[in-house]
Request: fold
Amino acid sequence: MIVGKALKDVRENVVIATKLMLHGFSFGNVYQTIRKHLEASMRRLQTDHVDLYYLHRMGGTPVEKVAEAMGRLIDEGLIGGWGLSQVDVDVIDRAQKVTPLTAIQNIYSMVEWDSEAAIIPYCMAHDIGFVPFSPIASGLLSGRITPQTQFENYDDVRNWVPQLSRANIKGNRPIVELLKKYAKMKQATPAQISLAWMLHKYPNVVPIPGSKNRERIVENLNASNVALTDEEFSALEASLNQCRVFGHRGLGGF
Ligand SMILES: NC(=O)c1ccc[n+]([C@@H]2O[C@H](COP(=O)([O-])OP(=O)(O)OC[C@H]3O[C@@H](n4cnc5c(N)ncnc54)[C@H](OP(=O)(O)O)[C@@H]3O)[C@@H](O)[C@H]2O)c1
Reply:
């Protein structure tokens, strides 16, 4: 509702991406169910179309059924394109064969590389955007988190992210120090370097860092102005490859 209110007067100048979740649903009328979710989202967002509509997680519904429904919604002009989140390459391929995908939103950052093996190459080969979530590892790669950092609210997910345990913050310090070194060299911030790294690495990557703070939103947006040369990128990548990664983000429930 708040987003709808904020975007109402500038709707034509923004791209809206949102998601649905199919809770415990498997073989009913998938199109009708997805359409109902979409209509409710459009009401809240005060818009008559959504530019990019994702399924948040695969549940019991066959991906082919979801792809078929999304294809109908595209044909009806209700969505511009569609995507999947936190899926493997087999699911992507099955979906792609029914209705070509617009974007895949999976976890990806300097400390979460799994998507590099098959998913990002598949997306590149099929002209699919890759949208990394948690691209600065829940703030870890900003260098502003120390083992002493207390996360404010009881509902801040960072209280449960394994990567942000005291031991893992300490273990990942060499990666943060590496980012600080490049930040100094490029007159940027560590968070910007971590985003510039993935922007340099792949042409189809569009990271979505999250922040509730205006200054950090602007800082993260400006990462697109931090251009690494090929030499800088290769040296950074080589040093990164020598670092061990401690912990992971954990995906249970969020
Ligand atoms: N598809 C999925 O399953 C999935 C799962 C999780 C998240 N997401 C989406 O992915 C996006 C971001 O993911 P995320 O929030 O988990 O991780 P993230 O962007 O890696 O990190 C966000 C955290 O880091 C802090 N932060 C952001 N920029 C910073 C900076 N420049 N310096 C210092 N701290 C900074 C933020 O705190 P402040 O707010 O205090 O700045 C926030 O707590 C969100 O849009 C979210 O909706 C998707």
